[in-house]
Amino acid sequence: MPAKPTLPAIATFVAAGALCVGGAILTVSQIEARSASAVSEALNTAGYDWATVSADGLQLDLSGTAPDEATRFRALSVAGRIVEGTRVIDRMEVEKRDTIEAPRFSVELLRSEDGISLIGLVPADMDRLGFMERIARRAQNAPITDLLQTASYPVPEGWEEALEFGLRALERSEKAKISIAADRIDVITMADSEAQRDTMRSALRAIAPEETTVTLDITAPRPVITPFVLRATKGEDRTRLDACSASTEQGRDAILGAAEDIGLTNARCPLGLGAPTPEWPRVASAAIRALGLVEGGTLTISDLEMRLEADAETQDFGRIAADLRSELPEEFTLTALQADAEAVEPDAGPAEFTATRSPEGLVQIRGRVETPLSRTVVSSFGRALFAGNELSASLDVAEDVPPGWGARVLAGMEALAKMNFGAVTVTEDQMAISGTSGSQETTAQITRLLTTQLGDAARFEVDVAYDKRLDAELALPTPEECVAQINSILSDRQITFDPGSATIATESRDSVAAIAAILGRCDGVGMEVAGYTDSQGREEMNQQLSQQRAEAVLAALLARRVPVGDLTAVGYGEANPIADNDTAEGREANRRIEFSLAEGQDPETASAEAETTE
User: Fold this and answer.
1) pTM for the full predicted model
2) Domain annotation covers residue 345
Protein backbone atom coordinates (compact mmCIF):
# COMPACT_ATOMS: atom_id res chain seq x y z
CA MET A 1 0.00 0.00 0.00
CA PRO A 2 1.61 3.27 -1.15
CA ALA A 3 2.42 5.92 1.38
CA LYS A 4 0.13 8.93 1.69
CA PRO A 5 1.65 12.33 0.71
CA THR A 6 2.70 14.31 3.63
CA LEU A 7 1.66 17.93 4.29
CA PRO A 8 5.08 19.40 3.36
CA ALA A 9 4.91 17.77 -0.04
CA ILE A 10 1.51 19.25 -0.70
CA ALA A 11 2.70 22.71 0.27
CA THR A 12 5.66 22.34 -2.04
CA PHE A 13 3.44 21.52 -4.98
CA VAL A 14 1.10 24.46 -4.24
CA ALA A 15 4.01 26.89 -4.01
CA ALA A 16 5.44 25.68 -7.29
CA GLY A 17 2.06 26.16 -8.99
CA ALA A 18 1.70 29.69 -7.62
CA LEU A 19 5.16 30.55 -8.85
CA CYS A 20 4.26 29.29 -12.33
CA VAL A 21 1.01 31.26 -12.45
CA GLY A 22 2.69 34.43 -11.22
CA GLY A 23 5.44 34.07 -13.73
CA ALA A 24 2.93 33.61 -16.48
CA ILE A 25 0.99 36.70 -15.42
CA LEU A 26 4.19 38.72 -15.22
CA THR A 27 5.21 37.49 -18.63
CA VAL A 28 1.83 38.45 -20.12
CA SER A 29 1.95 41.91 -18.54
CA GLN A 30 5.42 42.47 -19.94
CA ILE A 31 4.24 41.36 -23.38
CA GLU A 32 1.19 43.70 -23.18
CA ALA A 33 3.33 46.68 -22.15
CA ARG A 34 5.97 46.05 -24.80
CA SER A 35 3.31 45.54 -27.52
CA ALA A 36 1.35 48.67 -26.58
CA SER A 37 4.54 50.74 -26.43
CA ALA A 38 5.78 49.42 -29.77
CA VAL A 39 2.48 50.05 -31.52
CA SER A 40 2.13 53.54 -29.99
CA GLU A 41 5.67 54.45 -31.08
CA ALA A 42 5.00 53.19 -34.61
CA LEU A 43 1.78 55.20 -34.86
CA ASN A 44 3.47 58.38 -33.64
CA THR A 45 6.32 57.86 -36.09
CA ALA A 46 3.79 57.52 -38.91
CA GLY A 47 2.13 60.78 -37.90
CA TYR A 48 -0.96 59.22 -36.32
CA ASP A 49 -0.50 60.80 -32.89
CA TRP A 50 -4.25 61.15 -32.56
CA ALA A 51 -4.49 57.37 -31.98
CA THR A 52 -4.41 55.94 -28.44
CA VAL A 53 -3.22 52.38 -27.67
CA SER A 54 -4.29 50.43 -24.57
CA ALA A 55 -3.68 46.76 -23.68
CA ASP A 56 -6.43 44.34 -22.72
CA GLY A 57 -4.75 41.04 -22.04
CA LEU A 58 -2.92 40.09 -25.20
CA GLN A 59 -5.28 42.32 -27.21
CA LEU A 60 -4.59 45.97 -28.07
CA ASP A 61 -7.40 48.53 -28.27
CA LEU A 62 -6.92 51.38 -30.80
CA SER A 63 -9.08 54.42 -30.07
CA GLY A 64 -9.21 58.07 -31.20
CA THR A 65 -10.78 60.03 -34.04
CA ALA A 66 -9.29 59.66 -37.51
CA PRO A 67 -9.63 62.60 -39.94
CA ASP A 68 -11.01 60.24 -42.61
CA GLU A 69 -11.66 56.58 -43.36
CA ALA A 70 -8.46 56.11 -45.32
CA THR A 71 -6.32 57.36 -42.43
CA ARG A 72 -8.13 55.04 -40.00
CA PHE A 73 -7.33 52.06 -42.25
CA ARG A 74 -3.66 53.09 -42.51
CA ALA A 75 -3.41 53.30 -38.71
CA LEU A 76 -4.76 49.75 -38.44
CA SER A 77 -2.19 48.62 -40.98
CA VAL A 78 0.66 50.17 -38.98
CA ALA A 79 -0.50 48.38 -35.81
CA GLY A 80 -0.88 45.09 -37.73
CA ARG A 81 2.77 45.22 -38.75
CA ILE A 82 3.88 45.33 -35.11
CA VAL A 83 1.59 42.69 -33.60
CA GLU A 84 -0.64 40.02 -35.05
CA GLY A 85 -3.68 41.62 -36.66
CA THR A 86 -6.10 39.44 -34.70
CA ARG A 87 -4.85 41.06 -31.48
CA VAL A 88 -5.76 44.62 -32.65
CA ILE A 89 -9.26 45.74 -31.70
CA ASP A 90 -10.45 48.77 -33.76
CA ARG A 91 -12.33 51.20 -31.57
CA MET A 92 -11.41 54.29 -33.68
CA GLU A 93 -13.97 56.78 -35.01
CA VAL A 94 -13.90 58.89 -38.16
CA GLU A 95 -14.35 62.67 -38.04
CA LYS A 96 -17.75 63.75 -39.27
CA ARG A 97 -17.67 65.78 -42.45
CA ASP A 98 -19.90 68.83 -43.01
CA THR A 99 -22.52 68.59 -45.72
CA ILE A 100 -21.14 69.71 -49.07
CA GLU A 101 -21.87 73.42 -49.44
CA ALA A 102 -24.14 74.55 -52.24
CA PRO A 103 -22.34 76.28 -55.12
CA ARG A 104 -22.66 80.02 -55.63
CA PHE A 105 -25.45 80.57 -58.12
CA SER A 106 -24.96 83.51 -60.48
CA VAL A 107 -26.06 84.74 -63.90
CA GLU A 108 -24.20 87.11 -66.16
CA LEU A 109 -26.37 88.94 -68.70
CA LEU A 110 -24.43 90.33 -71.64
CA ARG A 111 -26.37 92.58 -74.00
CA SER A 112 -24.97 93.94 -77.26
CA GLU A 113 -26.19 94.76 -80.74
CA ASP A 114 -26.10 91.05 -81.60
CA GLY A 115 -28.44 90.00 -78.79
CA ILE A 116 -28.28 88.73 -75.22
CA SER A 117 -26.03 85.99 -73.80
CA LEU A 118 -26.62 84.18 -70.51
CA ILE A 119 -23.66 82.62 -68.70
CA GLY A 120 -23.55 81.13 -65.22
CA LEU A 121 -24.85 78.48 -62.82
CA VAL A 122 -28.52 78.40 -61.76
CA PRO A 123 -30.64 76.09 -59.56
CA ALA A 124 -32.05 73.07 -61.34
CA ASP A 125 -35.52 73.90 -60.01
CA MET A 126 -35.47 77.33 -61.67
CA ASP A 127 -38.08 77.95 -64.38
CA ARG A 128 -35.58 78.61 -67.17
CA LEU A 129 -38.22 78.78 -69.90
CA GLY A 130 -40.18 81.38 -67.94
CA PHE A 131 -36.95 83.29 -67.31
CA MET A 132 -36.20 83.36 -71.04
CA GLU A 133 -39.70 84.61 -71.77
CA ARG A 134 -39.29 87.42 -69.25
CA ILE A 135 -36.01 88.43 -70.90
CA ALA A 136 -37.57 88.35 -74.35
CA ARG A 137 -40.44 90.60 -73.27
CA ARG A 138 -38.17 93.14 -71.63
CA ALA A 139 -35.55 93.09 -74.40
CA GLN A 140 -38.04 93.38 -77.29
CA ASN A 141 -37.44 89.82 -78.46
CA ALA A 142 -33.70 90.24 -78.98
CA PRO A 143 -31.86 86.96 -79.84
CA ILE A 144 -30.95 85.04 -76.68
CA THR A 145 -28.02 82.64 -76.29
CA ASP A 146 -28.48 80.33 -73.30
CA LEU A 147 -25.17 79.05 -71.88
CA LEU A 148 -26.46 78.44 -68.34
CA GLN A 149 -25.48 75.37 -66.30
CA THR A 150 -27.63 73.88 -63.52
CA ALA A 151 -27.02 72.29 -60.12
CA SER A 152 -29.50 70.44 -57.89
CA TYR A 153 -29.34 72.62 -54.78
CA PRO A 154 -31.98 74.75 -53.05
CA VAL A 155 -32.73 78.19 -54.48
CA PRO A 156 -30.92 80.76 -52.26
CA GLU A 157 -32.89 83.42 -50.45
CA GLY A 158 -33.24 86.61 -52.47
CA TRP A 159 -32.55 84.89 -55.79
CA GLU A 160 -35.85 85.81 -57.45
CA GLU A 161 -35.66 89.44 -56.29
CA ALA A 162 -32.12 89.72 -57.66
CA LEU A 163 -33.17 88.24 -61.03
CA GLU A 164 -36.11 90.67 -61.29
CA PHE A 165 -33.86 93.66 -60.60
CA GLY A 166 -31.33 92.44 -63.16
CA LEU A 167 -34.07 92.19 -65.79
CA ARG A 168 -35.25 95.73 -65.00
CA ALA A 169 -31.71 97.00 -65.44
CA LEU A 170 -31.43 95.05 -68.71
CA GLU A 171 -34.65 96.64 -69.94
CA ARG A 172 -33.15 100.12 -69.51
CA SER A 173 -29.86 99.34 -71.30
CA GLU A 174 -29.00 98.86 -74.94
CA LYS A 175 -25.52 97.60 -74.06
CA ALA A 176 -24.80 96.17 -70.64
CA LYS A 177 -23.05 93.60 -68.50
CA ILE A 178 -25.19 92.62 -65.52
CA SER A 179 -23.85 90.12 -62.97
CA ILE A 180 -26.56 88.70 -60.71
CA ALA A 181 -26.21 86.73 -57.47
CA ALA A 182 -28.58 86.45 -54.53
CA ASP A 183 -26.44 88.76 -52.38
CA ARG A 184 -24.86 91.03 -55.01
CA ILE A 185 -25.73 92.65 -58.33
CA ASP A 186 -23.25 94.55 -60.51
CA VAL A 187 -24.55 96.63 -63.41
CA ILE A 188 -22.20 98.04 -66.05
CA THR A 189 -23.95 99.99 -68.80
CA MET A 190 -24.00 103.23 -70.79
CA ALA A 191 -26.38 106.16 -71.11
CA ASP A 192 -26.83 108.56 -74.01
CA SER A 193 -26.29 111.64 -71.85
CA GLU A 194 -25.39 112.69 -68.33
CA ALA A 195 -29.04 113.53 -67.63
CA GLN A 196 -30.14 110.07 -68.76
CA ARG A 197 -27.38 108.52 -66.65
CA ASP A 198 -28.60 110.35 -63.53
CA THR A 199 -32.21 109.38 -64.25
CA MET A 200 -31.28 105.73 -64.79
CA ARG A 201 -29.20 105.65 -61.63
CA SER A 202 -32.02 107.13 -59.53
CA ALA A 203 -34.63 104.77 -60.99
CA LEU A 204 -32.51 101.66 -60.38
CA ARG A 205 -31.60 102.65 -56.85
CA ALA A 206 -35.28 103.15 -56.05
CA ILE A 207 -36.15 99.56 -57.00
CA ALA A 208 -33.00 97.82 -55.71
CA PRO A 209 -33.61 94.84 -53.38
CA GLU A 210 -33.12 95.90 -49.76
CA GLU A 211 -30.97 92.94 -48.69
CA THR A 212 -28.75 92.86 -51.78
CA THR A 213 -25.59 94.83 -52.48
CA VAL A 214 -26.04 96.72 -55.76
CA THR A 215 -23.26 98.54 -57.62
CA LEU A 216 -24.05 100.73 -60.63
CA ASP A 217 -21.36 101.71 -63.13
CA ILE A 218 -23.19 103.87 -65.68
CA THR A 219 -21.10 105.93 -68.06
CA ALA A 220 -22.18 108.71 -70.42
CA PRO A 221 -20.30 110.22 -73.38
CA ARG A 222 -19.03 113.72 -72.87
CA PRO A 223 -20.48 116.39 -75.14
CA VAL A 224 -18.41 118.65 -77.38
CA ILE A 225 -18.36 122.19 -75.95
CA THR A 226 -17.70 124.99 -78.41
CA PRO A 227 -16.55 127.54 -77.68
CA PHE A 228 -14.98 126.64 -74.35
CA VAL A 229 -16.38 129.40 -72.15
CA LEU A 230 -15.97 130.56 -68.58
CA ARG A 231 -17.78 133.63 -67.27
CA ALA A 232 -17.89 134.86 -63.68
CA THR A 233 -19.34 138.04 -62.19
CA LYS A 234 -18.46 139.68 -58.88
CA GLY A 235 -20.97 142.16 -57.49
CA GLU A 236 -21.90 143.80 -54.25
CA ASP A 237 -24.41 141.12 -53.27
CA ARG A 238 -22.78 137.94 -54.53
CA THR A 239 -20.27 136.31 -56.83
CA ARG A 240 -21.60 133.86 -59.39
CA LEU A 241 -20.32 131.59 -62.10
CA ASP A 242 -22.53 132.10 -65.15
CA ALA A 243 -20.77 129.54 -67.34
CA CYS A 244 -17.95 127.08 -66.93
CA SER A 245 -16.27 124.38 -69.01
CA ALA A 246 -13.72 121.69 -68.15
CA SER A 247 -12.33 118.67 -69.95
CA THR A 248 -11.22 116.54 -66.98
CA GLU A 249 -12.40 115.95 -63.45
CA GLN A 250 -9.06 117.18 -62.08
CA GLY A 251 -9.38 120.37 -64.11
CA ARG A 252 -12.96 120.89 -62.96
CA ASP A 253 -11.92 120.46 -59.32
CA ALA A 254 -9.14 123.02 -59.76
CA ILE A 255 -11.50 125.60 -61.32
CA LEU A 256 -14.23 125.09 -58.72
CA GLY A 257 -11.64 125.22 -55.96
CA ALA A 258 -10.46 128.63 -57.18
CA ALA A 259 -14.09 129.78 -57.42
CA GLU A 260 -14.78 128.65 -53.86
CA ASP A 261 -11.73 130.59 -52.64
CA ILE A 262 -13.30 133.87 -53.82
CA GLY A 263 -16.66 133.09 -52.24
CA LEU A 264 -18.44 131.27 -55.02
CA THR A 265 -20.19 128.11 -53.78
CA ASN A 266 -22.59 125.53 -55.23
CA ALA A 267 -21.18 126.14 -58.70
CA ARG A 268 -21.33 123.69 -61.60
CA CYS A 269 -18.71 123.09 -64.25
CA PRO A 270 -19.82 120.56 -66.91
CA LEU A 271 -17.25 118.24 -68.47
CA GLY A 272 -16.88 118.11 -72.23
CA LEU A 273 -14.54 117.85 -75.16
CA GLY A 274 -13.03 120.81 -76.99
CA ALA A 275 -10.61 122.46 -74.54
CA PRO A 276 -8.44 124.87 -76.57
CA THR A 277 -5.33 124.01 -74.56
CA PRO A 278 -4.22 121.62 -71.80
CA GLU A 279 -3.47 124.77 -69.79
CA TRP A 280 -7.18 125.64 -69.55
CA PRO A 281 -7.70 124.64 -65.86
CA ARG A 282 -4.62 126.56 -64.69
CA VAL A 283 -5.45 129.64 -66.77
CA ALA A 284 -9.09 129.64 -65.67
CA SER A 285 -8.10 129.28 -62.01
CA ALA A 286 -5.59 132.14 -62.27
CA ALA A 287 -8.19 134.38 -63.92
CA ILE A 288 -10.77 133.58 -61.21
CA ARG A 289 -8.24 134.49 -58.53
CA ALA A 290 -7.61 137.79 -60.31
CA LEU A 291 -11.36 138.50 -60.34
CA GLY A 292 -11.35 137.90 -56.60
CA LEU A 293 -8.92 140.80 -56.15
CA VAL A 294 -11.18 143.43 -57.74
CA GLU A 295 -14.00 145.18 -55.89
CA GLY A 296 -16.47 144.22 -58.58
CA GLY A 297 -16.28 143.14 -62.19
CA THR A 298 -16.69 140.51 -64.84
CA LEU A 299 -14.40 137.78 -66.18
CA THR A 300 -15.05 136.25 -69.60
CA ILE A 301 -12.92 133.55 -71.25
CA SER A 302 -13.89 132.26 -74.69
CA ASP A 303 -11.40 129.69 -75.97
CA LEU A 304 -8.09 131.64 -76.07
CA GLU A 305 -9.53 135.13 -75.53
CA MET A 306 -9.85 136.57 -72.03
CA ARG A 307 -11.49 139.77 -70.86
CA LEU A 308 -11.31 141.12 -67.29
CA GLU A 309 -13.39 144.16 -66.40
CA ALA A 310 -13.26 145.93 -63.03
CA ASP A 311 -15.34 148.72 -61.53
CA ALA A 312 -14.00 152.16 -60.74
CA GLU A 313 -13.49 151.42 -57.03
CA THR A 314 -10.88 148.71 -57.65
CA GLN A 315 -7.44 149.77 -56.45
CA ASP A 316 -4.21 148.86 -58.25
CA PHE A 317 -6.03 147.25 -61.15
CA GLY A 318 -2.99 147.68 -63.39
CA ARG A 319 -0.88 145.45 -61.16
CA ILE A 320 -3.68 142.85 -60.98
CA ALA A 321 -3.91 142.74 -64.78
CA ALA A 322 -0.12 142.60 -65.18
CA ASP A 323 0.19 139.69 -62.75
CA LEU A 324 -2.56 137.81 -64.57
CA ARG A 325 -0.97 138.45 -67.96
CA SER A 326 2.32 137.02 -66.71
CA GLU A 327 0.58 133.71 -65.89
CA LEU A 328 -1.00 133.28 -69.32
CA PRO A 329 0.53 131.12 -72.08
CA GLU A 330 1.55 132.94 -75.26
CA GLU A 331 -1.52 131.79 -77.18
CA PHE A 332 -3.91 133.64 -74.84
CA THR A 333 -4.88 137.27 -75.28
CA LEU A 334 -6.01 139.41 -72.34
CA THR A 335 -8.12 142.56 -72.50
CA ALA A 336 -8.20 144.34 -69.13
CA LEU A 337 -10.57 147.32 -68.67
CA GLN A 338 -11.55 149.45 -65.70
CA ALA A 339 -14.66 151.61 -65.58
CA ASP A 340 -14.13 155.39 -65.54
CA ALA A 341 -15.07 156.73 -62.17
CA GLU A 342 -16.04 160.05 -63.77
CA ALA A 343 -18.37 158.47 -66.31
CA VAL A 344 -21.81 160.10 -66.41
CA GLU A 345 -25.17 158.44 -66.81
CA PRO A 346 -26.57 158.40 -70.35
CA ASP A 347 -29.21 160.86 -71.38
CA ALA A 348 -32.82 160.14 -70.57
CA GLY A 349 -34.76 157.97 -72.92
CA PRO A 350 -32.08 155.45 -73.96
CA ALA A 351 -32.71 152.80 -76.60
CA GLU A 352 -34.27 149.72 -75.08
CA PHE A 353 -35.66 146.40 -76.26
CA THR A 354 -37.50 143.82 -74.15
CA ALA A 355 -38.74 140.32 -74.93
CA THR A 356 -40.73 138.16 -72.52
CA ARG A 357 -42.01 134.59 -72.63
CA SER A 358 -44.68 133.47 -70.16
CA PRO A 359 -45.21 129.93 -68.79
CA GLU A 360 -48.44 129.84 -70.80
CA GLY A 361 -46.53 130.37 -74.05
CA LEU A 362 -47.25 134.07 -74.68
CA VAL A 363 -44.27 135.90 -76.24
CA GLN A 364 -44.12 139.71 -76.29
CA ILE A 365 -41.44 141.82 -77.94
CA ARG A 366 -41.27 145.59 -77.39
CA GLY A 367 -38.78 148.36 -78.09
CA ARG A 368 -36.75 150.11 -80.73
CA VAL A 369 -35.27 148.88 -84.02
CA GLU A 370 -33.15 150.69 -86.60
CA THR A 371 -35.25 150.59 -89.76
CA PRO A 372 -38.59 149.32 -91.07
CA LEU A 373 -36.69 146.39 -92.57
CA SER A 374 -35.22 145.64 -89.14
CA ARG A 375 -38.74 145.59 -87.70
CA THR A 376 -39.79 143.01 -90.29
CA VAL A 377 -36.67 140.93 -89.68
CA VAL A 378 -37.12 140.93 -85.88
CA SER A 379 -40.82 140.01 -86.13
CA SER A 380 -40.16 137.19 -88.62
CA PHE A 381 -37.23 135.92 -86.57
CA GLY A 382 -39.44 135.86 -83.46
CA ARG A 383 -42.19 133.88 -85.18
CA ALA A 384 -39.63 131.34 -86.39
CA LEU A 385 -38.02 131.02 -82.96
CA PHE A 386 -41.28 130.71 -81.05
CA ALA A 387 -43.34 128.71 -83.52
CA GLY A 388 -46.39 127.38 -81.75
CA ASN A 389 -46.43 130.25 -79.24
CA GLU A 390 -48.64 133.30 -79.41
CA LEU A 391 -46.45 136.27 -80.44
CA SER A 392 -47.22 139.92 -79.81
CA ALA A 393 -44.86 142.51 -81.33
CA SER A 394 -44.75 146.30 -80.76
CA LEU A 395 -41.61 147.75 -82.34
CA ASP A 396 -40.77 151.41 -82.94
CA VAL A 397 -38.36 152.55 -85.65
CA ALA A 398 -35.71 154.97 -84.32
CA GLU A 399 -32.46 156.08 -85.88
CA ASP A 400 -30.70 156.90 -82.59
CA VAL A 401 -29.92 153.32 -81.63
CA PRO A 402 -26.27 152.45 -80.86
CA PRO A 403 -24.05 150.54 -83.33
CA GLY A 404 -24.61 146.79 -83.43
CA TRP A 405 -28.10 147.21 -81.98
CA GLY A 406 -29.76 144.78 -84.40
CA ALA A 407 -27.29 141.98 -83.66
CA ARG A 408 -27.83 142.42 -79.91
CA VAL A 409 -31.62 142.31 -80.29
CA LEU A 410 -31.51 139.11 -82.35
CA ALA A 411 -29.04 137.50 -79.94
CA GLY A 412 -31.27 138.41 -77.00
CA MET A 413 -34.30 136.79 -78.65
CA GLU A 414 -32.31 133.66 -79.35
CA ALA A 415 -31.26 133.58 -75.70
CA LEU A 416 -34.91 133.87 -74.64
CA ALA A 417 -35.79 130.89 -76.85
CA LYS A 418 -33.41 128.71 -74.83
CA MET A 419 -35.49 129.23 -71.66
CA ASN A 420 -38.90 127.78 -70.92
CA PHE A 421 -40.00 131.21 -69.76
CA GLY A 422 -38.23 134.43 -68.84
CA ALA A 423 -37.29 137.91 -70.00
CA VAL A 424 -34.53 139.67 -71.95
CA THR A 425 -33.75 143.38 -71.69
CA VAL A 426 -31.33 145.06 -74.11
CA THR A 427 -30.04 148.59 -73.41
CA GLU A 428 -27.24 150.70 -74.85
CA ASP A 429 -24.57 149.31 -72.53
CA GLN A 430 -26.01 146.12 -71.05
CA MET A 431 -28.06 143.01 -71.69
CA ALA A 432 -29.94 141.21 -68.90
CA ILE A 433 -31.31 137.69 -69.30
CA SER A 434 -33.36 136.01 -66.56
CA GLY A 435 -35.85 133.17 -66.39
CA THR A 436 -36.37 129.47 -65.79
CA SER A 437 -35.24 126.47 -67.80
CA GLY A 438 -35.54 122.72 -67.75
CA SER A 439 -31.84 122.30 -68.52
CA GLN A 440 -28.92 122.89 -66.21
CA GLU A 441 -26.82 123.87 -69.23
CA THR A 442 -28.96 126.83 -70.31
CA THR A 443 -26.83 129.48 -68.57
CA ALA A 444 -23.68 128.12 -70.19
CA GLN A 445 -25.41 127.85 -73.58
CA ILE A 446 -26.62 131.46 -73.44
CA THR A 447 -23.18 132.66 -72.36
CA ARG A 448 -21.54 130.86 -75.27
CA LEU A 449 -24.17 132.21 -77.65
CA LEU A 450 -23.66 135.85 -76.63
CA THR A 451 -19.86 135.72 -76.54
CA THR A 452 -19.81 134.03 -79.95
CA GLN A 453 -22.23 136.43 -81.65
CA LEU A 454 -21.34 139.67 -79.84
CA GLY A 455 -17.70 139.14 -78.92
CA ASP A 456 -16.03 138.75 -75.57
CA ALA A 457 -16.39 142.50 -74.93
CA ALA A 458 -20.18 142.21 -74.72
CA ARG A 459 -21.72 143.23 -71.39
CA PHE A 460 -24.47 140.96 -70.19
CA GLU A 461 -25.88 139.28 -67.11
CA VAL A 462 -27.45 135.83 -67.11
CA ASP A 463 -29.62 134.62 -64.24
CA VAL A 464 -31.45 131.41 -65.21
CA ALA A 465 -32.95 129.06 -62.60
CA TYR A 466 -33.17 125.32 -63.23
CA ASP A 467 -36.53 123.60 -62.66
CA LYS A 468 -36.23 119.85 -63.06
CA ARG A 469 -39.96 119.55 -63.68
CA LEU A 470 -39.37 121.28 -67.00
CA ASP A 471 -36.46 118.98 -67.90
CA ALA A 472 -37.40 117.08 -71.05
CA GLU A 473 -34.60 114.58 -70.38
CA LEU A 474 -36.17 113.61 -67.08
CA ALA A 475 -39.72 113.63 -68.48
CA LEU A 476 -41.13 114.12 -65.00
CA PRO A 477 -44.85 113.52 -64.60
CA THR A 478 -47.33 116.22 -63.61
CA PRO A 479 -48.72 116.14 -60.04
CA GLU A 480 -51.95 114.60 -61.32
CA GLU A 481 -49.96 111.96 -63.22
CA CYS A 482 -47.93 111.21 -60.07
CA VAL A 483 -51.08 110.48 -58.07
CA ALA A 484 -52.68 108.51 -60.90
CA GLN A 485 -49.60 106.32 -61.41
CA ILE A 486 -49.33 105.52 -57.69
CA ASN A 487 -53.01 104.67 -57.32
CA SER A 488 -52.79 102.52 -60.44
CA ILE A 489 -50.14 100.43 -58.70
CA LEU A 490 -52.29 100.21 -55.58
CA SER A 491 -55.30 99.10 -57.60
CA ASP A 492 -53.28 96.16 -58.93
CA ARG A 493 -51.17 95.41 -55.83
CA GLN A 494 -52.62 97.06 -52.74
CA ILE A 495 -50.28 97.46 -49.76
CA THR A 496 -51.39 94.92 -47.15
CA PHE A 497 -50.54 94.57 -43.47
CA ASP A 498 -50.23 91.77 -40.97
CA PRO A 499 -53.63 91.16 -39.32
CA GLY A 500 -54.50 93.78 -36.71
CA SER A 501 -51.12 95.54 -36.98
CA ALA A 502 -49.30 98.30 -38.86
CA THR A 503 -46.56 95.97 -40.10
CA ILE A 504 -46.43 95.91 -43.90
CA ALA A 505 -46.76 92.37 -45.24
CA THR A 506 -43.73 90.91 -47.00
CA GLU A 507 -45.64 90.39 -50.25
CA SER A 508 -46.27 94.17 -50.45
CA ARG A 509 -42.58 94.99 -50.72
CA ASP A 510 -42.80 95.25 -54.52
CA SER A 511 -45.68 97.73 -54.29
CA VAL A 512 -43.69 99.97 -51.93
CA ALA A 513 -40.68 99.78 -54.24
CA ALA A 514 -42.77 100.73 -57.29
CA ILE A 515 -44.30 103.70 -55.44
CA ALA A 516 -40.84 104.80 -54.30
CA ALA A 517 -39.64 104.81 -57.90
CA ILE A 518 -42.53 107.10 -58.91
CA LEU A 519 -42.03 109.44 -55.95
CA GLY A 520 -38.40 109.80 -56.96
CA ARG A 521 -39.72 111.59 -60.05
CA CYS A 522 -42.39 113.57 -58.15
CA ASP A 523 -40.22 115.60 -55.81
CA GLY A 524 -42.00 118.72 -54.57
CA VAL A 525 -45.53 117.41 -55.13
CA GLY A 526 -47.54 117.54 -51.91
CA MET A 527 -49.60 114.40 -51.37
CA GLU A 528 -51.80 112.91 -48.70
CA VAL A 529 -51.30 109.25 -47.84
CA ALA A 530 -54.66 108.03 -46.57
CA GLY A 531 -55.20 104.84 -44.57
CA TYR A 532 -58.57 103.05 -44.37
CA THR A 533 -59.88 99.98 -42.52
CA ASP A 534 -63.05 97.90 -42.67
CA SER A 535 -65.90 98.38 -40.19
CA GLN A 536 -65.03 95.52 -37.88
CA GLY A 537 -63.97 96.58 -34.41
CA ARG A 538 -64.44 99.85 -32.55
CA GLU A 539 -64.39 103.02 -34.64
CA GLU A 540 -61.75 104.71 -32.49
CA MET A 541 -59.43 101.72 -32.73
CA ASN A 542 -59.94 101.57 -36.50
CA GLN A 543 -59.00 105.23 -36.85
CA GLN A 544 -55.82 104.75 -34.83
CA LEU A 545 -54.88 101.64 -36.79
CA SER A 546 -55.43 103.39 -40.14
CA GLN A 547 -53.25 106.30 -38.97
CA GLN A 548 -50.48 103.91 -37.93
CA ARG A 549 -50.66 102.11 -41.25
CA ALA A 550 -50.44 105.35 -43.26
CA GLU A 551 -47.41 106.34 -41.17
CA ALA A 552 -45.89 102.89 -41.74
CA VAL A 553 -46.07 103.52 -45.49
CA LEU A 554 -44.16 106.80 -45.04
CA ALA A 555 -41.55 104.99 -42.94
CA ALA A 556 -41.13 102.30 -45.60
CA LEU A 557 -40.67 104.96 -48.30
CA LEU A 558 -38.18 106.83 -46.14
CA ALA A 559 -36.22 103.59 -45.68
CA ARG A 560 -35.89 103.52 -49.48
CA ARG A 561 -34.32 107.00 -49.41
CA VAL A 562 -37.46 108.75 -50.68
CA PRO A 563 -37.90 112.32 -49.31
CA VAL A 564 -41.24 112.33 -47.51
CA GLY A 565 -41.35 115.99 -46.46
CA ASP A 566 -44.14 116.67 -48.98
CA LEU A 567 -46.21 113.67 -47.85
CA THR A 568 -48.78 113.70 -45.04
CA ALA A 569 -50.15 110.53 -43.39
CA VAL A 570 -53.86 110.63 -42.44
CA GLY A 571 -55.91 107.78 -40.99
CA TYR A 572 -59.63 107.76 -41.83
CA GLY A 573 -60.53 104.49 -40.15
CA GLU A 574 -63.68 102.88 -41.53
CA ALA A 575 -64.86 106.05 -43.32
CA ASN A 576 -65.37 106.25 -47.10
CA PRO A 577 -65.87 102.51 -47.81
CA ILE A 578 -65.58 101.51 -51.45
CA ALA A 579 -67.19 98.08 -51.04
CA ASP A 580 -69.71 96.21 -48.88
CA ASN A 581 -68.39 95.57 -45.36
CA ASP A 582 -70.82 92.66 -44.98
CA THR A 583 -68.71 90.43 -47.23
CA ALA A 584 -65.11 89.21 -46.83
CA GLU A 585 -64.21 90.53 -50.29
CA GLY A 586 -65.72 93.92 -49.51
CA ARG A 587 -63.87 94.23 -46.20
CA GLU A 588 -60.60 93.33 -47.91
CA ALA A 589 -61.19 96.07 -50.52
CA ASN A 590 -61.94 98.64 -47.80
CA ARG A 591 -58.63 97.92 -46.04
CA ARG A 592 -56.52 100.10 -48.31
CA ILE A 593 -53.98 102.90 -48.81
CA GLU A 594 -54.74 105.79 -51.18
CA PHE A 595 -52.70 108.77 -52.44
CA SER A 596 -54.17 112.16 -53.35
CA LEU A 597 -52.91 115.70 -53.97
CA ALA A 598 -52.51 117.53 -50.69
CA GLU A 599 -55.35 119.86 -49.75
CA GLY A 600 -54.69 123.43 -50.86
CA GLN A 601 -52.35 122.46 -53.70
CA ASP A 602 -53.72 123.74 -57.01
CA PRO A 603 -53.23 120.96 -59.57
CA GLU A 604 -52.79 123.49 -62.36
CA THR A 605 -49.94 125.33 -60.66
CA ALA A 606 -48.32 122.53 -58.65
CA SER A 607 -45.57 122.06 -61.21
CA ALA A 608 -44.69 125.75 -61.26
CA GLU A 609 -44.44 125.81 -57.47
CA ALA A 610 -41.98 122.91 -57.28
CA GLU A 611 -38.63 123.59 -55.75
CA THR A 612 -36.05 124.91 -58.20
CA THR A 613 -32.34 124.19 -58.11
CA GLU A 614 -29.82 126.76 -59.24
Assistant:
1) 0.48
2) no
